[in-house]
Design a protein that fits this description.
With 301 residues, this protein is an alpha/beta fold. The protein has two domains: 164 residues, Rossmann fold; 133 residues, Rossmann fold. It is 30% helix and 26% strand. The chain has eight helices and 16 strands. The strands form four sheets. The protein has a six-stranded parallel β-sheet with strand order 2-1-5-6-7-8, sandwiched between helices. Helix 5 links the parallel strand 9 and strand 10. Helix 1 packs across helix 8 and helix 4 packs across helix 5. The longest helix is centred in the first third of the chain and has 17 residues. It binds ribose-5-phosphate (R5P). Ribose-5-phosphate binds next to strand 13 and helix 6.
């Protein structure tokens, strides 16, 4: 038997998993004390059970202590194993030392999380210089993809789409979505000069004027990448683009800035709860977890 717990805002995904055979829903209280410290209490017994916790790791600094407390408490209460479903996996972008003295947080965070839980399932992690999660995670770590769902959304909603990836690493998901949606695609190049300062190459879209541009990226954080690309498309005389982000972080006023930058619409997956959510990933996550349940071999590295 497995028991599925949820951090706040991940109930839809946790309920979807818990609806399956041999799964039950667990109850946990997670809150912050007035001084900002975390309080965690498991209200359901977990003795001898496989515990699954659904906790997206956007804004990871606010959640990681509570996640660690949860895992410690579950082990102390006799949990057989602890699996983490993190629809968004944070701390993947600083995957190398760009300047002397920098912490390579992707590696350090992966090592830390690998000590807390026994396995990990996530959706489209930002794999750039690392090809696989297991290059930095020492626990079985499974990455699933939202490509099919995004392709389906494009097929159903957009007539004559032209998919555009803003940088080299986006080619991995843009090319897959394009293949599945039967649409052409263009990949641009990007130079990041600072957190909010990016330079994106001018797209050569002369032959695509009758198409609707669809910008696809894995993460929308400050939205600088999307906004800069949208400006180029406007200058090139293209229609206003639809922006699709797998994970909509929307730091600060990024969402409002994006909406007023001359785009048509912005759609994200519900890996991070947001009003732009238009693509539901609970079914693919549930399928991945059930696959692990029926093939425990997937959890051997
Ligand atoms: C990084 O290369 C990612 O794939 C995204 O392009 C990036 O995180 C987007 O960030 P922002 O919205 O801040 O431009």
């Amino acid at each position: 038997m497995s028991i599925v717990f949820s951090f706040p805002a991940y109930e839809t995904i946790a309920n979807s998993i818990a609806d399956e055979k041999d799964m039950q829903r667990g109850d946990v209280t997670i809150r912050q004390f007035p001084d900002g410290e975390s309080y965690v209490r498991l209200n359901s017994p977990v003795q001898g059970q496989d515990v699954i916790i659904v906790c997206g790791l956007d804004k990871p600094d606010r959640k990681i202590m509570a996640l660690m407390f949860f895992a410690h408490a579950a082990r102390e209460m006799g949990a057989k194993s602890i699996g983490l479903v993190a629809p968004y996996l944070g701390y993947m972008r600083q995957d190398k030392k760009f300047q002397d003295g920098e912490a390579v947080t992707a590696d350090i965070f992966a090592a830390f999380l690998s000590q807390i839980v026994d396995w990990l399932v996530t959706v489209d992690p930002h794999l750039h210089r690392h090809e696989k999660l297991n290059e930095i995670y020492s626990i079985p770590s499974i990455a699933i993809h939202a490509n099919d769902l995004i392709a389906e959304w494009v097929r159903v909603n957009i007539n004559r789409p032209l998919l555009i990836g803003p940088d080299a690493e986006s080619e991995q998901w843009v090319s897959e979505v394009a293949k599945k949606a039967g649409a052409p695609f263009v990949i641009l190049t990007k130079i990041r000069r600072g957190d909010r300062d990016v330079e994106v190459s001018i797209p050569n879209v002369a032959t695509w004027h009758t198409h609707t541009p669809i910008l696809i990226d894995d993460i929308i954080s400050t939205a600088s990448t999307m906004i800069t690309t949208a400006e180029h498309l406007k200058e090139a005389g293209m229609k206003p683009p639809v922006c699709i982000g797998v994970h909509g972080i929307f730091a600060g006023d990024a969402y409002e800035n994006l909406l007023t930058s001359g785009i048509e619409n912005v759609i994200t997956c519900n890996s991070i709860h947001h009003k732009s959510n238009g693509i539901s990933i609970e079914n693919i996550i549930t399928h991945a977890v059930m696959n692990i349940k029926s093939n425990p071999g997937l959890l051997t590295i």
